[in-house]
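Hey, resending since the last one bounced:
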Amino acid sequence: MHLSLKLKSGSAVLITILVASPACADRWNYGSRLSLNSDWNDNPSLANEDFNPESTFRFLAVYDGIWERRATDTRFNLRPRFTTDYYPDSKFSNLSATDYFLPGSFSYQRPLTIWNLGFNAAKQSVLSSEETISQGSPIGVLQGDDTLTQISLTPSLSWQITEKDELTAGLNYGMTDYALEFTNRSDTTNVGGNFSYSRRLSERHAVGFSGFISTSDSDRRARIPVSVDPPTDPPTLTILEGEVTTNTDSYYLTADYDYAFSETSALRISYGLQDSTTESTTEINLTGQTRSTGSLSFNSTTFNVAYQTELQRAKYSIEASRIVTLDITTGQPQDRYQLEFDGQYALTKRLLGGWRLIAWTQEAVALEALDENNLPTNFSSQLTFASAEFRLDWNLTRKWYINSRYEYRWRKTDQSINDFNQNLTAVSNQLTIGVTYLWKELPR
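The structure tokens again:
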């Protein structure tokens, strides 16, 4: 039994209009849409209240396409996406950007097995988000001066062992590269493998378990404070260029239970264990000195409880979860508890309402001091975030749609670096209205 853990939520383009319906065999089929939106936000960068945030307008254009070819036992598709943000206010001009995305997949199906290869390539501007909590990051300040290139490959194999048993195994490779140097962002390479097994006990009950192993390497250029030689009292520091590298190994094991209340309502409960080890080193270019900047091993438990239902005119999902991840730049563990409520309701045949409510809290604790100089690196941070989004979409004709959205965001940050404590709060309100034109939908 398969259970989608969350409903798709609206974005600036709002309704997902592309119709994924069966296509004729051995031929190309395509669909595309263009959305034009404008919005007003009283704090677009979600800057902290102490920074006196300013309001501004933004214009956003989004193109989505899908090219697909199906045959008896194969399927190939590409889903290009282009987005352009434009801020007419010169104060926010650094946030204007154009992003490119090219995900796709190829699958080959046999009577009992499905071979699949997923891939994605993207080039996008870098904006810090409300989720940024890394040490040294200017939390709440959008950084629009960098560009991120991403490539990923995800081959997998699914095997229907019996009518009730299914086994899936896969590999993943990911690479990220930033254009700018001497930032707090790291170029990373990630390699991993995963498997999952599920057994349907009855029409209502199913159980399963899954595992995941990954290793990631990240590196960034940095300016490193070091003591002068010979030592002085008090210590005198100078700044030298260096390379900071971080290696992280992680293991996950999760048990799942699914219960179907009906054909349209289901519950999934997952409980997992994870073990992670991270080690960071710094090499100073001028002296060739290499030193360990910290190492950490930890294990933790994770859980996820999700309920989804679909009614005649509405559908919604509720999800509660806990996950612990490692920041790829600093190697610090980040412990997050999250609650999410998504839904949509058909007010009329042409009018669709929707909502998305999210609340989470995340805590991060950095590694120990850099070296014997006891530089100020004992860092901890707790980030609490909440957002509420409400959507109203109007289907004018088969090709024209009007989209509207309101979003409220709230964030509180409590940071501590050695004896220095800082408490920051940020709030934003955003109104969006736009129009979507459907050029062509996939054949029904």
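The longest strand covers residues 237-260.

Sorry for the duplicate.
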